[in-house]
Amino acid sequence: MLGIIVLYLKMEKGEFERLLKTARIELDEEEYSSIEKDINEILRFFDKLENVSLENEELAFHPVEIPEKLRDDSTENKNEIENIFYNGENYRFYFLGPKI
Amino acid sequence: MTAKFLSLTDSEYAIFISQLKQANERLNAFNFIDENKKSGKIISVKDNICVKGMPATASSKILQGYMPGFNATAVQRLENSGFSVIGKTNMDEFGFGSFGLNSEHPAKNPFNEEYVAGGSSSGSAVATALIKEHVSIAESTGGSISAPAAFCGVVGLTPTYGAISRYGLIDYASSLDKIGFIGKSADNLRDVMEKTVGSDPKDTTSLSNVISNKNPHKLYVIDNLVENIDESIKDRFEDLLAKLSAKDYEIEHVNVDYLEYSVPAYYILSMSEASTNLAKYQGFKYGFKVKDFSLNYNEFFMSARKQFGKEAKRRVILGTFIRSKSIKQRYYEKALAIRHAIIARMKKFLNDGFIIMPSMPIFTPKISEVSDISPVEAYSMDMLTVPPNLCGFPHMSFPYFYEKGMPLGAQIITDHFNDYSLLDFLSEWESGFKYKFKEEIG
């Protein structure tokens, strides 16, 4: 258990690089060094939660109860095509994006 | 008293816009001012809430050029009731900040331009202080209404989570975001609140619960929360409690378990949710466009996301990390359990009383004093605003004292869906309090 705590208290360079790729974030030199340092400081701050006892406590995904809402299973013509494409680069109602 | 909003004739309007633009050059309250004549009661809207035909940037370069073709539900409901939007107010990028400094042109405090306006709804608080009879539609995730309201000497009302539709809000953290208001009169705040609350088919988390005004005459002070704040703030707060005690409020000091974990729990949840909500900014649908279609999928997205500011990058990276399968239980699930534990413990007291505390643990800082503090130091400044926001409790920051020309704010919290009791409290407070502003236009 102790090993796991030590592992996450400091994010190693390889882990940080992998994370940047996953998040699709590219950093310049100054950002890289300061954010890498900040992240380890913030994780230490988060690790305050490590020793808190929360047995039998439920998980609150929302702060208030949200009743399940279902819409009618029917089609409607909202005519929103112009709104949807209003801001995007598009060609004949297709968004222009990168190659996959 | 009744609600009263600024409404201008054609000839008055041009003068007003000219004065507003001049003030805005000094204070950076607005990202966008609409110079077209408005016929209705004038309001402003935070720049992460969509107004048809006005830019919506959330103060982010990645949204430069984005122009929504629709109104947020809160905006639409107010327009239907005769309100007109004068412009979009400055803010920390996507709501990521407590001082208003995570913006290309940070808003400045209307009492003294060397001081911060507070964040993230910095411009909404400055606009409210600046414009007569004004209300600004703002938004809070972890304190973005209370903090700037306190620093700018105005009132910030954050409603119960779900009371006002989030449709048309540029999301930060969906389980925490709440549209609310910044104003300087209980009657005006009640008027806009009444016109915007209620369920909306476009937001499945919006609720139709009746908003009540059960007015307790008991005030709980959470000692283990207030003990770590600036000693002089504590003294002023004691003076406030003495005044409220003289108005027949019963004061009781209590402790609430788990509150010391609320700030890390809040940042774990908000960063996790932010990292997914910001995934939609990819350089081809909203705002900033990457024009080089020869780039592959990853290069294209990375190129677009360079436009995020430093704090946004930090939060996306951390949020992505926290959501990793291998450590989800360590951080994310624990934070959800802490939220549940704190809601239950605060509710015990909110059943028969308000909870009251200073809004911020420090006096309004100078811009130079906080521009270089570490992220953890900055996040810790939210220690008083995070608990009600994490738990979705309605709360309100109101000005109660002026020291060396700067305002001080206190925050009062009530139970879910008892929002109007906050405005009843404010009406009573206003009967013996005079707001002060350095300048007002309109």
Question: Briefly, what is this?
Answer:
The complex is a heterodimer of chains A (100) and B (442). Chain A is mainly alpha-helical and 100 residues long.
Tell me roughly what share of residues is in helical segments of chain A.
40-55%
Oligomer: heterodimer
**Total strands of chain A:** 2
Let me know the average pLDDT of chain B.
96
Broad structural category of chain A? mainly alpha
Poorly predicted regions of chain B are none
Rg of chain A is 23 Å
Q: What order do the helices and strands come in, and which of them pair?
A:
The complex is a heterodimer of chains A (100) and B (442).
Chain A: H1 2-9, H2 13-23, H3 29-46, H4 81-85, E1 90-91, E2 94-95
Antiparallel strand pairs in A: 1-2
Chain B: H1 10-27, E1 30-33, E2 41-46, H2 73-80, E3 83-89, H3 122-130, E4 136-140, H4 146-152, E5 155-158, E6 178-183, H5 186-196, E7 218-222, H6 223-226, H7 231-246, E8 250-254, H8 262-277, H9 297-305, H10 310-322, H11 329-350, E9 354-358, H12 367-370, H13 375-380, H14 386-390, E10 395-403, E11 406-413, H15 420-430
Parallel strand pairs in B: 2-3, 2-4, 7-8, 7-9
Antiparallel strand pairs in B: 1-3, 4-6, 5-6, 5-10, 9-11, 10-11
Helix pairs in contact in B: 3-4, 5-15, 8-10, 8-11
